Amino acid sequence: MTYQDSIEFLFGQLASFERDGASYKPGLQTTLELSAMFGSPERRLKTIHVAGTNGKGSTSHTLAAVLMSAGYKVGLYTSPHLFDFRERIRVDGRMIGQGEVVDFVERYLARQADFTRRPTFFELTTVMALEHFVREGVDVAVIEVGLGGRLDSTNIITPELSVITNISMDHTQFLGNTLEEIAVEKCGIMKPGVPAVVGEAGKLREVFEREAAGHGSPVVFAEDADYVGEAGARGWLSLRGAYQLKNANTVLCALSVLRGLRGWDVPTEAVSEGMRGVCRLTGLMGRWTQLKERPYVVCDTGHNAGAWEYLPSEIGAMPGRVHIVVGFVADKDVSGIVGMMPKGAEYYFTQASTPRALKSAALAETGARCGLKGRAFDDVASACRAALSDAGEGDSVFIGGSNFVVSEIPPELLP
User: Fold this and answer.
1) What number is the average pLDDT over the span 37-48?
2) What is the DSSP string of 215-230?
3) CA 197 to CA 195: how far, in whole Å?
């Protein structure tokens, strides 16, 4: 089996929520049975579990970067990837090897007949990641929740620390139709005796307190203190965007709690180094990432209403005339998001090559109803190239709305 054969199996034969949006399979039994087939690696790992509607990817990468800077060997499991499947599974920033992916898939296929359940793409890749981290002998693995928390495949772990970044309306077809219902699902990662850090509780504080008490998990609310200000950490932030201040506050609170646990040594110098070098150390991409200087080109994977509460102010501060390449998946509250978008920009409505994509013509119609002016493009590359062609040297281009859109940025625009 070649690496390409393995990738085609993972994406082609296994149900994938990211591809078709229809494979969310609540419950942990399939993941537990699959994990047992590979020696239950979750029982042999120290982990940090990160959930939340927005910011969990940035938070996971930053925690990993800080722990690496403190001298720990760190596994990092995140999703989705942008350009290469192996971005999901890293050790000290290095992607899992192609050979390791092939080996895991071959071992699974060799025992597939003994398996009573058919795993999804995410269930299989979660176990792949956990086993890889054990084989690599990591000191700790930072594990990002895929969707929700309580019934997410990653919830077979018992971590040293649980982190929930924030709650907003997303994936309501699976997690609930109210913020309270979604918060309960996210709180499902809490474990007895394991401390939990909540980044932004807001009006849901009582929900978090009730759920933490029910799970027997001591809870700390990051928003109760200005960890960034107290640490003098504003100069350490390499991730751009005002929303990253809240992520940083959550990270610093989590590190404060972690330091209070037995056996953890994370000096201030490591925190500074990790936060300054998070992209270099972990390979993080797509968080207000600058691609070009003139014209100023930025991409961001913010894809729901919670993310778009912050993005318009960032876009409004971009120089010159702003050109926005944007596309969404169809299960988002697109009309609500479009209503937040800047009215004075030039829009290039597009669609990524996934069955979940909202058609660009439909997005353009929604945009027009909200007073946005622009054209529809059938693919991301054409939209990006049109925006670059129209933009002057002193102008700006924003590319985003979906991980899928960012993943299809044409190669000439990538750093």
Assistant:
1) 97
2) HT--EEEGGGS-HHHH
3) 7
How many angstroms separate the CA atoms of 339 and 366, rounded? Answer: 9
3-282, what's its fold? Answer: UDP-N-acetylmuramoyl-L-alanine:D-glutamate ligase (3.40.1190)
CATH code of domain 289-413 = 3.90.190.20
Res 272: pLDDT:
97
Tell me the pLDDT tens digit for each residue of 100-126: 999 999 999 999 988 888 898 999 999
Q: pLDDT (tens digit, 9 = 90+) per residue, 271-321?
A: 999 999 999 999 999 888 999 999 999 999 987 787 788 889 899 999 999
- Asked whether the predicted pLDDT for residue 172 surpasses 70, the reply is no
Cis omega (within 30 of 0) for bond into 80: yes
Q: What is the DSSP string of 248-302?
A: HHHHHHHHHHHHTSTT----HHHHHHHHHTHHHHH----SSEEEETTTEEEEE--
Sequence ranges of the domains in the chain: 3-282, 289-413
What is the rounded distance in angstroms from the CA atom of residue 406 to the CA atom of residue 409? 5
- Closest to 356 in 3D by CA, of 11, 81, 22, 20: 20
338 CB neighbour count, 10 Å cutoff: 22
**Dist CA 260 CA 406 (whole Å):** 39
- 213-253 pLDDT, tens digit each: 999 999 999 999 999 999 999 999 998 777 799 999 999 99
For the beta sheet containing 47-51, the strands, ordered from the edge strand earlier in sequence to the opposite edge, are 94-95, 89-91, 74-77, 140-144, 47-51, 161-164, 196-198, 219-221
Q: Where does residue 315 fall: left (phi above 0), alpha (psi -120 to 50 degrees), or beta otherwise?
A: alpha
First to last CA, the chain: 32
The pTM score is 0.90
